[in-house]
Design brief:
The protein has 201 residues and is an alpha+beta fold. The chain is 22% helix and 32% strand. It has four helices and 15 strands. It has a six-stranded mixed sheet, with helices on both faces. The longest helix is centred in the first third of the chain and has 18 residues. The chain is globular, with a radius of gyration of 17 Å. The two termini are 25 Å apart.
Amino acid sequence: MEDLEGMAYPQRSHWTEMEYLAFERQSETKHELVDGQIIAMSGASGAHNLITASTIAALIVQVRGKNCRVFSSDMRVRAPLLGNHTYPDITVVCGEVEYTDDTLETVANPTLIVEVLSPSTERFDRNQKFQNYWRIPSLETYLLIAQDQARVERFTRQKMNEWLMTVVVGLEQEIELASIGCTLALADIYQQVSLGGARRE
């Protein structure tokens, strides 16, 4: 997720899922529902878009023939225990996709979720978002990608409430995503992105 911004919408102390979905389907912009509160989302930076697009491209090539699907940030994810609805930057589902209803707008069984960090949302992605995601039984891997340096953090589920964190730093590094049978090269993720003032081609 990129920057958050305020927006005019009905003020309520708590939104139900049904109220949120009715509002969201009429809105021209995207919002997330976290702990009963609506959070408006704004556009992403150039670096954010490049990283997201390059990561999606690398994943699509590798999951071909593996019965996995790669979704962009237009696909919502629902956390069943809390009823939260969010738009991860990238979602991968392996096996049959479980949609929450016949609109096919929201998935309930992500295998991998990727968030590209930004200064304004990093704390949110690391804390509230992660606490939301790890309650999804199907989720096996959570990936955080930095914008300002070649750094990727991988959280791999060990038990329901236990996750193993692995950090890789440097364009020469790769990170394995065993849950979907892929490996991401950081050089591919950060192609055409300026790191430390130098643009990579």
